[in-house]
Structures are given as structure tokens and as C-alpha cells.
Amino acid sequence: MTELYLNSVFRMDWSCYFTQSCQVLSIFHVVCLAIILILIRSAIFNCILVVTILLMGLLALPLLFGSRKGVCWLRDVWVKFIISSLKTIVGLDYRVEGLENLPRGHFMVASKHQSAWETLALHLIFSDPSIVLKRELLKLPILGWFINKVGMVPIDRTGKATALKSMLMIARKWAGLGRPIIIFPQGTRVAPGEKKRYHSGVFAVYRALKVPVVPIALNSGIFWPRKAFKKRPGIITVKILKYIRPGLKREDFMKKLEDIIENETRVLEENSSRF
Questions:
Q1: Does 243 map to a domain?
Q2: Which of 20, 186, 245, 275 has the most CB atoms lying inside 10 A of its own CB?
């Protein structure tokens, strides 16, 4: 029996096992190389991002004493450069779907917020938007002055009635000049797959401005995760959904807005390739 077993072992075709082992090793090497390349590209892009922020801060100082137009011009140039660098270095591009859903005239935007990416790219999709952001950012040296000069809508998150009135007053001011107001209804970045409630502040702005609300779904968090060093190559999809007409009651508006954004975002996330 022992002799028969040894003979069968020696007669086996070990070449197939060797080939399979080489294939496994090759796949492993390819995956490791891809991860290393992503990390290197991310490091280069992150360095460019930090350096250009510092340079922009220095260049913006003289412009702070001039008109708002000069600061906005510098903002647009910087955003275009960063988004272009992201495509060239990291291999991360984006596409916009549903532009035909934009209403004529004034409107506000309620966008899903997964990443820092949309705080930049939405400036390229919409003309001179005013973004609702936390008031604490205005206290930052240089950056806070820059944000204030550009004309954003700061919100005090203490929840006081006076804070809400102040935010609505500023939102009305910029909306009256034809600027689209952009708000992130969940108030912060939410990772793909996670759930967080929609704050009623979006309804307060909707009711005060009396304009259509354009919901936006996106999947940026898959490629540029929150507080992550690594940026993945791919294509971010920004989907502009059918707008919500003014005049809805609070419960109806909040439910409709959340259902529209979350359902479409889920579809985008499921159709996105992960690495």
C-alpha cells in the first residue's frame, strides 16, 4: 500500500499546483502595488492641498481689503486647480447627472454630505453659491476672514432662536442677490452606509426663502472618506434630483427630502466599486 501511494504521489502533475501558486502570488503583488500607488498619489495630493491652502491664505490677505469679487475669483481658481489635481494625480474625476432637473430662477440646494470633496466641487457645479456652515470656522485666522469675505451663511449650532434668525437673515440677503444657498441637511459629513437624522434647519431656510429645493445625492465618501488620508481613483457621481416646490408642511417636506436623497444615495453607493 505504501509503495502504491508513493508511486501515485510521484506520478502527480505538480505543475498545475505551481501555476496556481504563481497566480495567487501575482494577484497579491498586483494588489499590494495598487495600494502602494494609491498611498503615494494620496500623499502627493494631500501635500499639494495643504501647501496651496497656505499660499491662498497669503495671497488672499491683500484681497480682503478690496471687493468681494477679487476673493471669489481666487476661490474659483483654487477650486478648479484642486479638482484638476485630484483627477491628474489621484485619478479621481466626477460626473454630474440630472442638470435638466434644475428649476428656472432662484433655488436652494440640499445636498448629501459625505466628504470634503463636495464643499469644493459644488462651487464648480453652481455659480457663486453660499454654503451654510458652522460659525466656528469664522474664528479661524485667515481662513475665517476669507470665508466671511466670500459670503457664506454661518450658523450657531447652540440651537438658540436668535441664532436661527441671524442665519435666515444672511441667507435671505445672499439669495436676494441670486446666489443659490447650499445646505447639508444632516449638518456634518456622514460616511456611506451610516445613518444620521436630518435637521429641521433645512426646513427653516426652505420656508424663509420660499424657493424650490434641489436635492442632491452623491457617493464621494467612497472615494474621499471622512478624515481619511487615502483618496481612491474612480468617478464620483453627483445626481441632481427633481426639485421640491415651495409651500409644503414641515413633516411632508422633511420626509420627502430625506427619502429622495437617501434612496438615491444608496443606489449610487451600491453601484460604486470599492477597493
A1: yes
A2: 186
Q: Does residue 58 sit within a domain?
A: no
Alpha-carbon span 42 to 46, nearest angstrom: 6
Confidence at residue 103, expressed as pLDDT on a 0 to 100 scale: 95
DSSP secondary-structure letter at 12?
S
Rg (CA), the chain: 25
Judge contact between 150 and 71, C-beta under 8 A: yes
Strand pairing of 130-134 and 181-183? Answer: parallel
Domain that holds residue 115: 92-270
Cα(144)–Cα(64) distance, integer angstroms: 11
CB neighbours of 226 closer than 8 A, spacing ≥ 6?
114, 115, 116, 189, 191
What is the grid cell recorded at 35?
Answer: 495600494
- Give pLDDT tens digits for 170-195: 999 999 999 999 999 999 999 999 99
Question: Is 217 part of any domain?
Answer: yes
Beta strands in 76-141 (DSSP E): 92-97, 108-111, 130-134
- Work out how many domains the chain is built from and give that number: 1
CATH number of the domain within which 220 lies = 3.40.1130.10
- pTM (predicted TM-score): 0.84
Residue whose C-alpha is closest to residue 109's, from 195, 192, 174: 174
The single-letter DSSP state of residue 136 is G
